[in-house]
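In response to reviewer comment 3 from the previous cycle, which asked for concrete evidence that the modeling workflow produces usable outputs, we include below a single protein chain processed end to end. The sequence was submitted unchanged, and the resulting structure tokens are shown without manual editing.
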Amino acid sequence: MRRIFSALFITTLFFSCKDKEDKGEFTLEGNVKNVPDQVVYLEQLFFTDQPPQVLDTGEIKGGKFEVSGNAAEEGLYRLRFEKLNSGFIFINDQPEINLQADVNDVSLEGPKFNSPANLALKNLLLNIEGQRKDMMATTALVDTLQKQPGTDSALAAANARLVTISNQFNEFIVKFIDTTRQPVVAMFAVGYTQSVAPAQLSTVIPNLAKRFPTHRGIAGIVNRYKEMLAAESQPKTPNTVAPAVGGMAPDFSMADTEGKPFSLSQLKGKYVLVDFWASWCGPCRAENPNVVAAYNKFKDKNFTVLGVSLDDNKDKWLQAIKADNLTWKHVSDLKGWENATVKLYGYDGIPYNVLLDPEGKIIATSLRDAALPAKLAEILK
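The workflow returned the following structure tokens.
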């Protein structure tokens, strides 16, 4: 999981709805069932700290409404209700767009827009949701197997399935970006490439500019991608030498989940796996069940884990800890790839880990899949 794709994800959302000019008018009208008469708002979405911008207001009466806006090119918009905590997101790919929906139907299948881009967006989200459910079901199976004795082979198979799901999703999203005919949907999909290997995107992202030569949002993404690649390729003066096996692990202190400072040195006297991860990292989430299994198996043998998150959103960080059943100590400075341990430990991808002995000496690094429990079984006899 490389820093460049975390930044590209943010850039994708930024360029998807910026720099609009009043050049093309579009109208959204339709019928939404089970909505009391009230004011509705047409909003432009920015996906940054900038709040949604209201372009038009109207009234929905008997379920029927009509609102209009102007835009330089296709982007993301929302129909929002004054008295309801709900709305409908859409793409302005046609001058006249019709919406048929039921406000009580919260499924992705529910709302129906009569335009190619909105159909493509729905199909993308439905596919992503299907793969997410597969991931959640497999994670639940892993949790069940971890609590049952004599299920080592089944547990290994379930963990392998998690890795397969992650790889299949990466292949799907890359192919989707490279084949969809809708520029805004392509940009939306780029936001799901955070766990994709750089080589898989080296031609896909630049090719977007050839496929959509007049779309400024696409141009912004491609230019930013090229800038980041150029910056990554420049020779860098190392700030520190990454600690190697046999060396002492650098100490550090960060806030834990309760906001209290916690230092690595506080775990001296135990074997410690320092696990660098993030809630947004697909391979990290796929590896978590393996770490959980290792922790549960060896925690009574003077072993523990310290999770170091490269998140920048505390809520998502805490939600992932709970969802993945990560019951050990966790810390983060919530600075993403600017996390202090990145330079301190010299890593440029996650998941990454270092295993320490009770004195703080590094025993091993990058222990994943079967390598982690095998190493722990070797030293924690």
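The chain is about 40% helix and 25% strand. We consider this sufficient to address the reviewer's concern, and the full set will be provided in the supplementary archive.
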